[in-house]
Write a structure and sequence with these properties.
- By secondary structure, the protein is α+β, with helices and mostly antiparallel strands.
- It has a single domain, classed as Ribosomal Protein S5, domain 2 (2-Layer Sandwich).
- Helices cover 34% and strands 23% of the residues.
- The chain has four helices and five strands, in the order ββββααβαα.
- The chain has a five-stranded mixed beta sheet.
- A hairpin with a 2-residue loop joins strand 3 and strand 4.
- Helix 2 runs parallel beside helix 3.
- The longest helix has 19 residues.
């Protein structure tokens, strides 16, 4: 099997994923998954599509992550891995879609408007 690549985004994070047949090793920015995401919850988020399809030990995954925070990065990696698995086997798409792994979360930070301290917060209004 050749290397399959896919891209995933979440908030400001971008994940480029390269999947090849192997033993289940996940490298993120040339570091081990457990090293890059010490939190077990974030490790679980990244592995969710693999665990759903029971292929955790079948593929080696290389991820290039940039931008965003650790939560956004982990969810971007999850989307990219799910898209790569669908490229490998299109029959898996309904199972991944039912769990919500195929949907790009469109929520991003709202921009700050001029003349106010934050996006929605206003300075105190004084009538007199």
């Amino acid at each position: 099997m050749e290397v399959i690549n896919a891209i995933g985004r979440r908030k400001a994070a971008v994940a480029r994923v390269f999947v090849s047949e192997g033993t289940g090793k996940i490298l993120i920015n040339k570091r081990d998954l457990e090293n890059y995401f010490p939190s077990s919850i974030l490790q679980f988020i990244v592995k969710q599509p693999l665990n759903k399809l029971d292929v955790a030990g079948k593929y080696d995954i290389r991820v290039n992550l940039s931008g965003g925070g650790y939560k956004g990065q982990s969810e971007a990696a999850r989307l990219a891995i799910a898209r790569a698995l669908v490229k490998i086997n299109p029959e898996d798409k309904p199972a991944l879609r039912s769990e919500g792994f195929m949907t790009r979360d469109p929520r991003v930070v709202e921009r700050k408007k001029p003349g106010q301290p934050k996006a929605r917060k206003r300075f105190q209004f004084s009538k007199r």
